[in-house]
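User:
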Amino acid sequence: MDKTIPAAFNLAAQLGGKVTGTRRTRVQASPQYAGGKFRNTVPTSAALDVSTLPKAAVGALTGGLARRTPHQPVPLVNANAVDAQGLHVTWYGHSTVLVEIEGHRILLDPVWSERCSPSPLVGPKRLHQPPVALHELPAVDAVVISHDHYDHLDMATVQSLATLQPTMLFVVPLGVGAHLERWDVPENRIVELDWHETTTVGDVELIATPARHFSGRGFTRNETLWAGWVIKGPTRRVFYSGDTGYFPGFTEIGERHGPFDVTLVQIGAYLDAMTDIHMVPEDGVTTHLEVRGALMIPVHWATFALAPHAWAEPADRTWREAKARDVKLAIPRPGERVDVDNPPEIAAWWQQIA
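Assistant: Predicted structure:
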């Protein structure tokens, strides 16, 4: 089996499902929902509306391709775990992460397709292959989704996982379950949460936390919710920021749910016009500190060229800021399994290929 999944050319299916029925009733009852849309606690710029976001995206993705991609192949590691004891993190690229926590496995935002796009012909293409094929993954207890953008919610990957691992649950923010049902994931395998709501998978508690972002797979925006996540085992804790602009809510997350053994924080795909919805690396380090993290592992970089910054810049800036603020940091190669209690020394592997 190829390690990447060709995107199915079915635009209607790729756009996902409509929020209707009892799901819509629950969405409308959310404190985050008003005027027919989900809202951030800290509003984003008025410039980030439906008419201007596509223009910003086009501007971000045109020109300067050489600096936005590595000049040599990205080094990959195939390090599937034998067991899930302790606390281990495997970053497969972009925001796809396997968290092994006290006997359970949680897979975050899995994307195995060649492009993060509704089309197999156009849209951002992978800069490296997935380190492992989907069928090589160990048994996973739950897939957790942060929001419904194509680089986080991948139809082909969801459909394959649902078939390959028939007991796996899908835990998603409010409304996102409509997409999964459109893709034939059984309703009894979908759990939808609002911010601050909780579900359990075995001994692990999954808590949806506020984030400052937006949603939408077509021309409409914010009809489904976006979230960060707390993954809480009996004695260990993990925080995943999801996609987000910086906002003061991270301090509250740390107070309510921290301290965290490890944080997985978005540091890439930033643009001056979009800092309300994607953090720059320095904000990512601040977020790690405010949620009271011990080890920081940066995500949302290296796999897709989604912004005009240089390919290696997010890692360079994160490393520099972490050293300045005495933050413990790991920057693994895609597929490298990190023992959170004994993380590897930083090897600056990205600088060698940039």
